[in-house]
Structures are given as C-alpha cells and as structure tokens.
Amino acid sequence: MNLHEYQGKEILSSFGVNxxxxxxxxxxxxxxxxxxxxxxxxxxGWHVIKAQVHAGGRGKGGGVKLAKNLKEVEEIAKEIIxxxxxxxxxxxxxxxxxxxxxxxxxxxxxxxxxxxxxMSVLLNRSTSRNMLMYSPEGGMDIETVAEETPDLIFTEExxxxxxxxxxxxxxxxxxxxxSGKAFKEMVKFxxxxxxxxxxxxxxxxxxxxxxxxxxxNILAVDSKVTIDDSALFRHKDYQDMxxxxxxxxxxxxxxxAGLSYVNxxxxxxxxxxxxxxxxxxxxxxxxxxxxxxxxxxxxxxxDAKRVEEAFRLILxxxxxxxxxxxxxxxxxxCDRVAQGVVEAYKNMxxxxxxxIIVRLQGTNAEEAKELIDNSGLAVESAVLFKEAADxxxxxLK
Length: 397
Description:
Rossmann fold, alpha+beta, metal-binding, single chain, ATP binding, ATP-binding, magnesium, Succ_CoA_ligase-like_bsu, 3 domains
C-alpha cells in the first residue's frame, strides 16, 4: 500500500524522525489558512506547495512550487489542485491532484550551506536482509546517480538478529562527510528511520532529499512509503491511509471481490489459480507471441460466481484479444471449474467477444474437458501447456 508524502511523514514523526512540517489542503482557501498557521507555528515566510499523488518526479511536472507570500500560495494551490499531473512515473494521462501539502521553508539562510542527501530502507532480496541505501547526491533521481556516479551510492546491510547498530549509523554519517552537530543528528536520524521502517512493517522508506539545514539539523523533506499489505492486520490505523483514488479502479474492484489482480499492458487475459502457475502462464503467453494483459489469481474456489467476476475484470481491458484460463485441479476439482466457466459464459451472453482457451489439468481433468467440449460455446479446450500455447498463438494470428 503506497502512502502520500504527508502520511509517510506522519509515520516518520511518530518514531522520532525530524520532518519538514506541513499541513494538507484540498482547496486554495484551505491552503492559505494552512500557510498562515505554519507561519504562526514556525515563523516561516515562504511556503512550498506540493501535489499529493502516488508518483515521484512531481517537481518535473509542475507539482512542487515555492510561494513567497499568501497570494502566491492561493494562486499556486489553485493551479495544482485539480490538475492532471504528468511525471516520469505516471502514465501519459497523468494523475489527478486532489490535495496539496503546504510545507514550511527549510532552506533558510544561516552559518552553513544546506546540503541534500538521498536515503532509503528496503529489502535486499539477494541477501534476504534489510538494507540502508544512501548517497551524498540527494535531490536527484537515484537511478541517474547510480548510472553516472556509482561510487557515490553506499549501502549498509542490517543483520536481522541485531537490527541496525549504532556503529552503522555513525558510518553513514561519516560517509556523508558530516561532523559536529550534524554528525550526531544524522546518527539519530538513521536510527529512528530504521525503527520506523521496521515497526511499521514497510517494504520501502525513501527520503529524497534528507536535508542538512544551515544550522546543522537533519530532517526529511520528502517521503515515499510503501506498507506491506500482508501486515496491515497489525496496523489498523494505517489501513485508513489507503487512497483508492490513486489506485487502478479494476485492481480495487478485484481486491473487494477477493481476487488477486494486477493490470498489465498486454493483449492476452489470464485467469489462473496459484501465483506460481500464473507467472508460468504469463511466460507461456510471451513464448506464444502475445503479451499478458493481467495477473489474475482466482485462488482455490473457482466457482461460477468467482469465474464470472474474473471474466468481467479481464474484459474491462479493451486491449484484450484473447483469454487463457489455466487451472490446476488440486484443491479445486477441474470439472467444477469447467462448470463455472460454462455458467459464467452463459450468464454474460454477448459480453464475451474474444476467443477463450481453457486448459484444465489435475483432479477430474478429463470430465472437465468433456464439459467444455460439449458445452456448445466458443471455448477451446487444451490438455498440455504446449497445446494451450499453440492455440493462443493461433487465435492471435
């Protein structure tokens, strides 16, 4: 589950991480009131207005701007709220902005020049350990830094038995070239950041930039947070942070129906039971010359109602030219799935206008094939994986 910047900062702050303070606004009038309140609380004269969408690179699309007075706050908020923000991480249509975050200006003058760093905590899947990744080149796309100056990317692997240790936090501060107060503040920041990541059951915490202010304080100016969906039962308060306006409507509908669905860009719809078989089926489609249009796992209860719902989800994608149903009958019997396919097909009538290939293997597979073949419907059955691939290839041609 992805969070907005302001939500990520709320979690960070709850674990003692210093953050750039801000107030959410949904209208230009609320934005002005938020700016006034921040001025009273922090003394800031300038304000940063940030679009709140689930995408990086907001500044490149005009979603992050500086306001030097209240009139500019209102004008910029009016410009950003309601816009379709296009960034390198959105589709060409962009994302609709429903709210903005009015932030204090933290780049104030002082004895030292402010400095920006990059920092993230995530799972290193090759070592099965959490990892702290950081760089003195903050404010830039980390992919660009990795490509152009890979020597400026540092990592710190965390032993799951001990968690992050103080010497590791000190090494981070040292590699970032800090000393004195800034060094001590960075050590605190790193320890608190990792605690927030671990205790919130997140799969990603990305702060870009982490700022060393002109008076040597360390704080998070931005936050990109992804919470592990599987751990949400432990965090009821985090569940309320989900913004379904930012998610694919079909994926939201699938989740409500108890189906695992991910929308892709291909032309062959997939209906499969089991994540491993689903991945293999997607490979099969590519080998057959097609592209998977979705990942869809119907689970172990593929009855008529569930199959019909899966059909409806797949057919919402206008790019779908064929559907491959690939079921292994282990927990669920193949003949039951076949009956579900037949009933769902009949219920949906002329809504199904693309060819369907059904491969059922496992318990009662022969009975299932017979049901499909004798249904009188425009559904082709297959027994072998290769046979299913050949039939997908044929219908695409």
